[in-house]
Specification:
The complex is a heterodimer. Chain A has eleven helices and nine strands. By secondary structure, chain A is of the alpha/beta class. Chain A is globular and about 50 Å long. Chain A starts with a helix and ends in a 6-residue tail after the last helix. Chain B has a domain of about 220 residues: NAD(P)-binding Rossmann-like Domain (Rossmann fold, 3-Layer(aba) Sandwich). Chain B has a seven-stranded parallel β-sheet, sandwiched between helices. Chain B has a two-stranded parallel sheet with strand order 7-10. A two-stranded parallel sheet of chain B has the order 8-13. Classes of the chains: A alpha/beta, B alpha/beta.
């Protein structure tokens, strides 16, 4: 019996199987894998592992999850924080277990992950892919639900002193939304900033290790309460008039996320307790 | 200078690399339909009484005699020195300079259809590759290793002739991993082993095409010779490397993946043909290509499943001499 089968037996409950069975599946090959290396079995195991943390460790609260369409292409755009991609994991679980209609989440991850042994592979198995525009377009053309953090490492690697301050958004996601006609669901993530508060970034060490940042922080995530606020879908015309026009659209999304973060901070019951 | 060809009924097809299994399967599909001429740099292969066969070194003048003696209309250029044979300079001369001589003869003797077998290796195994690489994706293989330069240069040379000599109606094929009975490339050798290395922490998804399906695909090209261009050939099926090993009854031997230099040096020291140092990254990062353009243009669907490919390698291991 393989490791995956053992893990599945030990971790995946019947309830979890039922949730996953409701998720619409995109085309997979004869061995259950898609072109990005995601597998049905891997997704189930990943969901089973992290759902426990989602429910009991981070005690995630969601608001407006019904704004994720039950079917069809959609870009979920969120603020990024917390050194580790826990915000991506939490949004993915919220999307996969959405009581209004679960979807298979496809989170775009930083480009260095595929070079990290075990981690890159695991992330691929559970449905994540490197944040490449070609990947994103292909997935949206397959009517998938794609999660993007336009701040990238500027957001995830920022210091605790800059918490809840949105960093510069790349424009790529807006071009993709306009190119493919995918609606954007903005998400305000609150709580991940407190999971791994960083007081400094050791840039020389990061350069040596080939990593985007090496934070001075605690060695494991703290049990901060996480609030995910999903906004109403935003649609943008497909025609790109100018880059300035694209920047204005990006600013609209950013404003929406800023408002959702504020709302989440007000709705949060407490940072840790 | 040869005279311009006038309307013949059936085009004469020159197939290079005739000693290889892919060329032989291609010839099997075309013989009877078209007059065939077979050449190979290794030996004159006995194929059949109606098929003239020659041992030809592309770098020697004797190659032109084949064009002088036969009124060649179509060239199917499969004959290449594999990445597991000889050094990089030998391969460069044979694959790039030799191919250029062949193309020049195609221009001189007014060949009107050239099919050339490139490889998905040209895309390079980069951790930053998106999935489903299409034919417009930049080629990165030579960034990663000098040993694949001849592969990329052959591709570049073919593209130059594709655009500079449109009358050649060149079709450049980039198939994914070719496997199946008789295939002796790197992946064929690896799948025939009982033990194979696995880079710890990496398990890339891969694609495979059965050698008989690829021969079928080449057969289709003869029916639509005017559709010049570059085509990926790959099925819409994906499987991780470790699953491939397990399906082929191969024991996975964990191999340190970090630092990369250690893996490459170890492979080089062992001189492992099935797992050469310059292909290490292809067992680390996925190189998934999109075969949709070929599928749409020629109506091609592989008839053989991954399971069929793996069954062949499982059965092979039941033979006592393997």
């Amino acid at each position: 019996m393989g490791v995956k089968t053992l893990l599945k037996k030990a971790l995946v409950s019947r309830e979890m199987e039922e949730i996953f069975d409701r998720v619409p599946k995109e085309a997979v090959g004869s061995y259950g894998y898609d072109p990005w290396g995601a597998s049905l079995e891997g997704s189930k195991i990943g969901l089973a592992i992290f759902k426990r943390f989602y429910d009991h460790y981070f005690r995630v609260q969601t608001f407006g999850i019904e704004n994720i369409p039950k079917a069809g292409r959609v870009l979920v755009i969120a603020n990024h924080s917390g050194q580790l991609p826990l915000d991506g994991v939490m949004i993915s679980i919220a999307v996969a277990t959405n009581p209004n209609g679960p979807r298979a989440p496809r989170a775009m991850i930083e480009r260095f992950f595929p070079t990290v042994p075990f981690v890159g592979n695991f992330l691929n198995e559970v449905g994540s892919v490197i944040g490449d525009p070609i990947n994103c377009v292909r997935m949206l053309e397959r009517d998938e639900c794609v999660i993007v953090f336009p701040e990238g490492v500027r957001g995830s690697g920022k210091l605790y002193s800059k918490r809840y301050q949105l960093q510069r958004f790349g424009h790529g996601f807006m071009h993709l939304a306009m190119q493919t006609g995918a609606p954007i669901v903005p998400v305000g993530v609150v709580g991940c900033e407190e999971t791994m508060p960083s007081i400094a970034n050791i840039k020389p060490l990061a350069r040596i290790l080939g990593l985007p940042y090496v934070p001075v922080t605690i060695p494991f995530p703290l049990p901060a309460r996480v609030v995910l606020s999903f906004g109403e879908p935003l649609s943008f015309p497909r025609e790109v008039i100018s880059e300035e026009h694209v920047a204005e659209n990006v600013e609209k999304v950013k404003e929406k996320i800023r408002a959702l973060i504020k709302q989440g901070l007000e709705q949060r019951k407490g940072r840790f307790f | 200078m040869p005279a311009k060809k006038t309307g013949k009924k059936k085009p004469t097809v020159l197939v290079t690399g005739a000693a290889g299994v892919l060329a032989q399967q291609t010839i099997a599909r075309l013989s009877g339909k078209y007059p065939i001429v077979a050449v190979d740099f290794r030996r004159a292969v006995e194929i059949g009484p109606d098929i003239p066969s020659y041992k030809v070194d592309f770098l020697k003048r004797g190659l032109e005699d084949v064009f002088r003696q036969h009124d060649i209309d179509t060239v199917i250029h499969i004959g290449r020195i594999g990445t597991d044979i000889g050094g990089k300079f030998f391969r460069y001369n044979a694959n790039v300079i030799g191919t250029q001589k062949l193309y020049d003869l195609c221009v001189k003797y007014k060949v009107n259809h050239v099919v050339v077998m490139s490889s998905y290796f040209v895309y390079g195994a980069s951790p930053y590759n998106p999935a489903l690489l299409d034919e417009d994706t930049p080629l990165k293989a030579s960034d990663l290793t000098l040993n694949l330069i001849d592969t990329v240069e052959l591709e570049n040379l073919s593209q130059i002739y594709l655009y500079k000599h449109p009358q050649l109606n060149m079709q450049i094929l980039r198939p994914t991993n070719i496997a199946g009975p008789g295939v002796r490339n790197n992946i064929g050798r690896l799948l025939s082993l009982r033990w194979a290395p696995v880079l710890m922490g990496f398990n890339p998804v891969m694609q495979f095409i059965h050698v008989l399906d690829l021969a079928d695909a080449i057969g289709l090209l003869l029916e639509k010779p005017k559709k010049a261009g570059i085509y990926n050939i790959a099925p819409n099926d994906w499987v991780p490397y470790k699953t491939v090993l397990s399906e082929c009854n191969i024991h996975a031997v964990p191999f340190p993946s970090v630092p990369t230099g250690l893996t490459v040096s170890t492979s080089r020291l062992l001189k492992w043909k099935a797992f050469p140092s310059y292909l290490v990254n292809y067992f680390k990062y996925p190189v998934i290509i999109d075969g949709g353009k070929f599928e749409r243009t020629f109506g091609f669907k592989p008839a053989r499943s991954l399971e069929e490919i793996f069954t062949h390698y499982r059965e092979l291991k039941k033979e006592p001499w393997v």
